[in-house]
Design a protein that fits this description.
Layout lengths: L4 E3 L7 E4 L10 H10 L13 E3 L14 H21 L8 E13 L4 E12 L2 E12 L6 E8 L19 H6 L3 E6 H4 L10 H6 L11 H16 L5 E11 L1 H12 L5 E5 L17 H8 L21 H6 L5 E7 L7 H17 L17 E3 L2 E6 L7 H14 L2
Parallel strand pairs: 7-8, 7-9, 9-10, 10-11, 11-13
Antiparallel strand pairs: 1-2, 2-3, 4-5, 5-6, 6-8, 12-13
């Protein structure tokens, strides 16, 4: 097994990474060759990953070493959050708005009596314009209330979260969560903002963007994350839900969104990011699979305009994704990947999680991780963090959800 050298000149300096293969998991040469042929110009070879320096998450902007929980909470965490608002996701405008909730359908005998179905309309109104976020919620009937809940940011269409359960999908295995004693909810991200470039005229941007957009105005990921928080607003009003024990879950672009939702909204007790890649859990400086350049070429509207400054210029980023993951501490954080999803950079995602651990340690969560990734289909869990790499392609399956629930049994129950 090759060695990954982590050279630190002083404890106060950033971490220098020499990227080599260190783990019990390695991408197959067949997968690398296939993806390289399909996506010429995208790097899928570890030996082509450059050496890079990660910003030290525990050194403040003025060079002060963060050594206490109070310093993290009062100084460094706000700094890191602001860096991501300014340079990656953008900031939510301060436009006033109102919200209201209406349960439009309730069925106490859903799932053959195992659950109660609630379909809720969350209406957001600003200056006589409004939009509706449709929230689907199943609550287990045969357990003591209130119960912990999972909230899915659904980026794959409403059929995946069919409230009638005529269509069932592994992407949202509601019956399995009910059987484990969890409430399971979902909203469709396009209810909040369309997943396309529309010059930020539609969706929640059309309601709240009253001033001329600037280079740090929020992109679509930030809008979806904002929508997740509005769903949590409703869950706080539902007597069946333990609102202080809600996990937000997302896959792919939804995984990026879940991380930003958890960073911005500390009410989420647990964050699950599944195969989220660049702009999600994967380190940008590795330039492996999805990159800053690729993201800006394909979906620049997901981010603020300032993010374009870092196209092929990742080393100038004042952040990297280990810092985003650190914003979840001391709450629960689960990062998941798939063996054939090299676009999402499984190794870079694990390394980001590894380099977020110092913050979890500072906050005394009993968290520690080995530098080595776990083998395939083996969950590694320590304190408030967990990770797995599942065999297969870019997707979210029942086996993923089972691991998420196992972690939830520790963090949420």
């Amino acid at each position: 097994m090759k060695t990954l050298y982590v050279a630190v000149a002083l404890a106060f300096l950033p971490i220098l990474i020499k990227a080599q293969d260190t783990t019990r998991w390695s991408a197959s040469q067949e997968t690398i060759a296939r993806l390289s042929k399909l996506q010429p110009g995208i790097n899928y070879y570890e030996e082509k990953v450059p050496a890079y320096t990660l910003p030290d998450v525990l050194t403040s902007d003025n060079g002060r070493k963060i050594e206490t929980q109070k310093q993290w909470t009062k100084i460094r965490r706000p700094e890191v959050l602001e860096l991501f608002r300014k340079n990656v996701y953008g900031r939510v405008p301060k436009t006033p708005y109102s919200k209201s909730y209406k349960v439009v359908n309730e069925n106490p005998n859903a799932m053959n009596g195992d659950a109660t179905l609630k379909q809720i309309e969350i209406t957001i109104t600003a200056e006589a314009k409004s939009l509706v976020i449709h929230l689907t919620l199943f609550v287990p009937n045969r357990v003591k209330k209130p119960v912990p809940a999972f909230l899915l940011i659904n980026n794959r269409g409403t059929a995946n979260t069919d409230p009638t359960r005529k269509v069932k999908s592994e992407f949202w295995p509601a019956e399995e969560l009910i059987a484990r004693g969890y409430a399971i909810s979902a909203f469709y991200n396009a209810d909040v903002d369309p997943d396309k470039f529309d010059d930020f005229k539609d969706g929640i941007h059309g309601l709240l963007d009253k001033d001329k957009r600037s280079e740090d105005s929020w992109g679509t990921i930030a809008a979806w994350a904002w929508g997740a928080s509005r769903c949590l607003d409703y869950l706080e009003t539902d007597k069946d839900i333990a609102a202080d024990r809600v996990a937000v879950v997302g896959h792919s672009r939804g995984g990026k969104t879940a991380l930003w939702a958890g960073a911005e909204d500390q009410r989420f007790a647990m964050v699950v990011s599944n195969e989220s890649g660049a702009g999600g859990a994967a380190l940008s400086r590795r330039r492996y699979g999805e990159t800053v350049a690729a993201s800006n070429k394909l979906v620049s509207y997901w981010y603020c305009s300032n993010y374009k400054k870092y196209i092929n210029n990742e080393d100038s980023l004042p952040t990297d994704q280990h810092m985003l993951l650190s914003l979840i501490a001391p709450r629960g954080l689960y990062v998941a990947c798939a063996s054939e999803d090299l676009w999402g950079d499984p190794r870079g995602s694990y390394l980001a999680l590894y380099h977020s651990v110092p913050v979890f340690k500072l906050l005394q969560t009993g968290t520690d991780l080995s530098l080595d990734m776990p083998p395939l289909n083996t969950k590694v869990q320590s304190g408030k963090v967990a990770y797995h790499i599942r065999d297969g392609v870019h997707n979210m399956l029942v086996k993923d959800w089972n691991w998420f629930m196992d972690f939830g049994d520790v963090v949420l129950k």
